[in-house]
Each structure stands twice: as C-alpha cells, then as structure tokens.
Amino acid sequence: MTPEMTGQAWLRLRQTTGITDPAAWLTTVTSRLTLDAATTAERRRVDYVGPWLPDVVVLPGTERTDSTGDAVVGAGLVDLALVRLLHTLAPVDRAIVVLHDVAGVPHDEIARITDTTPAAARKRHSRARRALREAPATAHDAGLAGRLATALRAGDLSALIAALSEDVVLWTDSGGATRAARRPVSGADKVARFLAGIIDRFGMPALSVETGYGAVVIRAVSPDMVRLVVLESSGGRVTGIQIQQNPAKQHEIRDHRN
C-alpha cells in the first residue's frame, strides 16, 4: 500500500456517503487500488527489457570504509532481496502476502477484497509463503561488500570467487536504457568472470561502499554510467548480486543541512 493509493482512498471516502465502517472501507479500497496498480505494472513488466530489480535509494554522506559494519537504515523495514522475490509472485498472491503478513488483514477480509473465498485466500497465502520460505536476505553488513569491492579492485579472481556462494546469481536491471546482460548469470565462477570481464573491457570503476535504504550499496562509477550494487547473502557469502543501472531506478537523498 503506497501513500499515493492511501491518498486516493481518502479522497474517495470524502466523496462517498453512507459508509458505516470507514476503517474497513479504507482498507478495502486502498487494497483494491494497490492490486489494480500491481496488475497494471505486471503487464508493463512483460515488455520490460531484461531482468526487473527494485529501485535503490542511497542516503547522503554515508560512504564507508571497507571494514565498517554499521547497521543499515531501514534494515528492519525493507529487504530488497525479499522485494525482488515478491515480484516473482502473481499480483494477487503478492497482495495477499502484504495484506496478511504486513497489514494484519484476516483471510475472510482478504477474500472479500480479492473477490475470492476465504479457503482460496488461505490456500494462495500458504502457497505464496512456501515460495518465500527460502527467501535470501539482503546483506546489511558493509564488511562483505567491502571484501567484494577489494577483490574487484585488486583483480583477485580467487578472492572474488571465495566471497561468492556456489549457486550465486547476478541480475542486471537496465530497463533498456544502458548496456546490460539481458539474462541472469549463475554460478560463482561464471559470475566472477563476468564481473572481471566487465572491468577488463570497460576499465575499473570508482568503487565506494555506502548506505542505502534497507541495504548496503556498492556504488560503481564509470565514465559512461553509474551502477548501484546490492548484495544478497547467506552464511557470510554472497548468494545474489543485484546491479541496478537503470537511471530511472537510482535515487539519492540529498543532504540539505549544509
């Protein structure tokens, strides 16, 4: 549920009479608006060029040393690995998970919102939760990002492979706006050589480890583009690499205090 959808629901509430339970009405309308928006976005994503990844937000004045391990702003509120996985679900299943697990809406109410039966809502929720059960976690420790950045700077392929899990997957989201791999790259050796190949071909980017909203972000700045890299991890190794190089999905909050 986005602030935009909530605002639309409030506007409709002000224009509607005879509502006996405003809270329930707002929940239903906001949820349906959000579901409609998700369905529309899903149709657009069919024509999306290459993999789809979440937007990345970088916070001001947060460049870190490679060894720092501070907490990440918003780490308990958003997980970009989970967001990526949520968007592999059907829009209705995604809405059911958010309504039940985040908003605490009971299955009977979800059934009414999604025009289904309570039994069907429970079944879809259970199926979606199973799909998310093995969800990876976004790396919130800058140390892992720092080790990866150090290995890249040094051109140390062995150290790079050692930081990756055997089944690591790399996705690049360009939205067709920049050069990018159109398909995911899988496996530690292939991912390491893919990253090394980019550097060999286009040169070493300026790398910095920074704080994003809900993630540690490696900023890779090249003459032709900026890449914002988010890591997924398990057991101290990188299990997923999200490379966001679509300019429309890169955001930086400016510090206006100075």
UniProtKB/TrEMBL annotation:
GO terms for biological process: DNA-templated transcription initiation. It comes from the Bacteria. InterPro entries: ECF_Sigma-70_Domain (IPR052704), NTF2-like_dom_sf (IPR032710), RNA_pol_sigma70_r4_t2 (IPR013249), RNA_pol_sigma_r3/r4-like (IPR013324), WH-like_DNA-bd_sf (IPR036388). One of its GO terms (molecular function) is DNA binding. SUPFAM superfamilies: NTF2-like, Sigma3 and sigma4 domains of RNA polymerase sigma factors. Keywords: DNA-binding, Sigma factor, Transcription, Transcription regulation. Residues 81-132 form the RNA polymerase sigma factor 70 region 4 type domain. PANTHER family: ECF RNA POLYMERASE SIGMA FACTOR SIGI-RELATED (PTHR30173:SF43), SIGMA 19 FACTOR (PTHR30173). Belongs to the sigma-70 factor family. ECF subfamily. This is RNA polymerase sigma factor sigW.
